[in-house]
Amino acid sequence: MENLQDNSQQTGAARRALDAVKQWLGRLSFRTGVIVLSLCVPCYVFSFAQMALPISAKAKGVLWVVFFGLAKTFQYGGLTILGVEGWKRLKARFRRR
């Protein structure tokens, strides 16, 4: 019973911490969101381009995990910073061009 209560307290603390991070990211500017979101593109490129390097399969796997993880982190971080309204604004900019 105590173990179950400890797990729910840890889950609650983790959820509060995640909410605090999301709020902090949401307060950043539109421009910052676009920059962070655009950083995911080179990380995606590096995560797959390194497969052409003459290195061991283990090193390739490690590099792929690192760069693909960075790409996803930048992607979700940028989308969190932009929010729904920022995403609509960004899509509208691309449609005009």
Description:
By secondary structure, this protein is mainly alpha-helical. Helix 3 runs antiparallel to helix 4. The longest helix has 40 residues. The relative contact order is 0.13. The model has no long low-confidence stretch (mean pLDDT 87).
Describe, in short, the structure shown.
With 97 residues, this protein is mostly helical. The chain has helices at 2-26, 30-38, 40-49, 57-96.
Keywords:
97 residues; mainly alpha; 4 helices; flat
Reconstruct the topology from this structure:
Layout: H1 2-26, H2 30-38, H3 40-49, H4 57-96
- Overall 3D shape: flat
What sequence of helices (H) and strands (E) makes up the elements? HHHH
Number of helices: 4
- Unreliable spans: none
Tally the beta strands.
Answer: 0
Structural class: mainly alpha
Write down the overall mean pLDDT: 87
Query: What can be said about the biggest beta sheet?
Result: none
Strand residue content = under 5%
Task: Tell me roughly what share of residues is in helical segments.
Answer: over 70%
Query: Gyration radius, to the nearest Å?
Result: 18 Å
**End-to-end gap:** 60 Å
